Amino acid sequence: MSPKNSHSAGAFDIRNVIGILLGIYGLVLVASHFLLDPGVNVETGMAKESIYNLWAGLGMLVVGLGMIAWAKARPIIVEEPTNAA
Where are the transmembrane segments (predicted)? Predict the structure, then answer.
């Protein structure tokens, strides 16, 4: 049997990609809660709520950080066989 080289998937691990995307979307939603005016409903004349952006953004940030922590805690090991000549 020949020895095998192994390394972690690193940045190409799908959990890192999902975690980063959820984190970016979460930051956009949290920022929109604080920076954007939600406006007024045209039909009723009542002000719209922006608290939903905050809760959805915080949830996405938590899940995104959880995905990245999971990828760091249990990395995927990719084994590459060496060529025996």
Answer: 12-31, 51-71
Q: Are 73 and 49 in contact (CB under 8 A)?
A: no
Q: 3-state secondary structure string, 33-70?
A: HHHCCCCECCCCCCECCCHHHHHHHHHHHHHHHHHHHH
Q: Render each residue's pLDDT in the chain as its tens digit; 85 residues.
A: 445 676 677 777 899 999 999 999 999 999 999 999 888 888 998 888 889 999 999 999 999 999 999 999 988 877 777 776 5
Report how far apart, in Å, the C-alpha atoms of 30 and of each of 14, 38, 67 are.
Answer: 24, 13, 19
Q: What share of the chain is helix, strand, coil (3-state, %, to 5)?
A: 55, 15, 30
16 and 74 Cβ atoms separated by less than 8 Å: no
